[in-house]
What does this fold into?
Amino acid sequence: MATPDAASAVITSQLVLLLHERRGHSRARYALIVETAEDPELADLLSGSLFSYERAVTLFRALGLHEPQQAAADLIAVLEGLLFDRLYGRRRQSETTTLKALQAELERPIQLLLSSFVYDGQRHSAGTSPSSQKFRS
It folds into this structure.
């Protein structure tokens, strides 16, 4: 069975690959996204080229979430943000000097996110999520 920790390690490894060995590809993709914004077909191809929505849905189903599609979309949005932040944002000049340190820095937010999805899914299953509470009166 999939676990949030195992999944976060794999996902983080992919992110490190995109920031190190495939850094040029990642930057080119962002440049092309801007250039193709008016072409929906190309924009869709580029926006789905780094992170697999289908694999994310499969992961969240394996983790037992009731709304794997929403969780998958949320995860990909966060991954895009982490990638952009390291390429162009505040952390582009990070003091992280090794790939191992970069892996550790990126894995923390991904672990937290995946664990929160699982925790929230368990609360939802037990009928204790905030959204289920408002319909109980």
Remarks:
- The radius of gyration is 17 Å.
